[in-house]
Amino acid sequence: MQQRTGILGESAAIQEVLVKIEQMAPVTSTVLIEGESGTGKELVARGIHDLSPRRGKAFIAVNCAALPETLLESELFGHEKGAFTGAAERRLGRFELANGGTILLDEIGEMPASTQVKLLRVLEDRSFFRVGGTQPIQVDVRVTAATNKSVKEAVALGRFRDDLYYRLNVLSVYLPPLRERRSDIPLLVRTFVAEFAKTHARTFRGITPEAMQILVAADWPGNVRQLKNLIESMVVLAPEGEIRASDIPRDIRERTRTMPVRIAEVQGVPREITGQELEFIFRTLVEMKVQLEELRHRIEERAPERVEVIEVGGSREQGAGSRRLEPATVDPLDSTPEPDGPVVYKAGMTMSDVERAAIDAALRETRGNRRKAAEVLGIGERTLYRKLKEYAIS
């Protein structure tokens, strides 16, 4: 599925997206694809089309935010000769050109109100009129729509028709931002490095573990698109055919993430663990996993260069009274009661335990308000709901 759709990732969130694509492909229902810019919404729409019985017909994408209202209507539905100044001949619109296939209406939330009315007619009757036309045009087109904003919120504000929203949202797919699926970053990086090394005919050895750690820890506001563009730049410009930490732009290298969550004192240690320290623990576990994956990958490829694995956290300064945290597993028989207040961190907690502790603390801090808790944690609300279900947090 990943090769057929171009959507890469081994995380549970991406596997869920791939399963949905496979389930949605055989039917003709409309699909609403939601996700931040650069997450791969068009890849989802193309994947649905390519796996559907319509794959032999056209797939056409239209950006609803790129054209003014008058031009967008003509672009979508076409126009007759003389319909307006400059209309020297009849022109078929994108819906006619996509007949039998699939159309993607990107940035659907930016569609003007007058065009929304015409689109609703297409969805209800499978027909429309060209601009300046008097005869209805019948079409058989599967409609997919994409947005990087909340259409539901636009409905509440009166900027988007509620009846159109329900028509578009028969099936829905949510693409998580890259910062919510960091475990996929090593796979994406290796794939892009290989792709651009081949494209630009570069002999390339890969990326150092230190550089990979930085890429995994970055926030990526532009998501996969931003990561891909950066990798291409570094493949072209990196000396000696290897991406090192120094090759990564300074703004990405120096950016740090913090988790504004209050955590109670460690059992047996007379001081508090701060949100920043919890972030360090979380980052350490992620980095250890990345380093192990990189080491395994290089060994499998039998790379000639020496791979240096850096001890994570060994060179960092720690405050007075702190102690070094060694990774271990939580004893399932440990029945030590937890306090009613903030979540206690204990040495030996796994990455999942730390994640659950952060979610518990955020929910307590926001008095159970899940939307605010998601904002505190820096993740999407849907991701939080999925985590609540995964960890059976009520």
Would you write up a description of this structure?
- The chain is an alpha/beta fold and 394 residues long.
- The protein has a domain at 2-175: Rossmann fold, CATH 3.40.50.
- Helices cover 43% and strands 9% of the residues.
- It is built from 16 helices and 9 strands.
- A 5-stranded parallel sheet has the order 2-3-6-1-7. It has a two-stranded antiparallel ribbon with strand order 4-5. Strands 8-9 form a two-stranded parallel sheet.
- Strand 4 and strand 5 (137-138) form a beta hairpin.
- Helix 13 (275-301) runs antiparallel to helix 14 and helix 14 (351-365) packs across helix 15 (370-377).
- The longest helix has 27 residues, at 275-301.
**Number of helical regions:** 16
Structural class, from secondary structure content?
Answer: alpha/beta
Flag low-confidence runs.
Answer: 256-278, 303-343
What is the level-2 CATH architecture name of the domain at 2-175? 3-Layer(aba) Sandwich
Any idea of the CATH topology of the domain at 2-175? Rossmann fold
* Distance between the amino and carboxyl termini: 34 Å
Alpha-carbon Rg, integer: 25 Å
